[in-house]
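lol so apparently i was supposed to do this last week
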Amino acid sequence: MADLSSFPITKKWPAKNPDIIQLYSLPTPNGVKVSIALEELGLAYEPHRIEFGPDGVKSPEFISLNPNGRIPAIIDPNGPGGKPIGLFESGAILVYLAEKTGKLIPADPALRYETLSWVMFQMSGVGPMLGQFGHFYKFAADKVANNSYPTERYRDESKRLLSVLEDRLKDRPWIMGDEYTIADITTYPWVRGADIFYGGREALDYASFPSVVDWVERASARPAAQKGFDIPAKA
Ligand SMILES: N[C@@H](CCC(=O)N[C@@H](CS)C(=O)NCC(=O)O)C(=O)O
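anyway here it is w/ glutathione bound
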């Protein structure tokens, strides 16, 4: 049995089965990227639900795994060299899982780097911009009632990013063509989330991005997505 005692997070959220991947997450757009990938890959894993706030993501035990205090994070008891490894940042976790299994990323080196470009495009653009849009549009709307600048700035940049995706997807089913990859898995939960969590469908003018909307539907219909969207479930 793997020994995960060097990871303080396992004191607060003990592993029932330390031999399988431990997932520390919540079903948010960043969190579901990892549960969807784990489901797609058919890897065994144990989900732990980590709430926002001082008893969850900001607790010393969680911070010991992710100094940035944000879900998702994982421990793989069978990391490089057969040793346990802890990881945070959804993009890094997806690259790790794809490389560990040789799936969800093209084998061809040039296509692999192209996939990573799109993963970075999401990590630095789509997620942060749609997230800030959602903050001002929904959660802090009262704070910017007299100043539309923040909402408009992030709305317009989000729409610009959606137009980049629309262009990419207008003649291919997935970001990398016929192959469903971590570039899709990292990106579509954010486009879906801006609609279902923020109610931003009209404000972001999804009707202008039909290929993106079709792609989100196609990806969301996959059995792994249907499962991953609700993991970790509420106790
Ligand atoms: N770049 C990070 C972002 C992670 C992130 O923002 N997670 C949010 C949930 S979607 C979180 O844990 N927020 C808790 C907080 O801000 O206190 C990643 O992709 O893993």
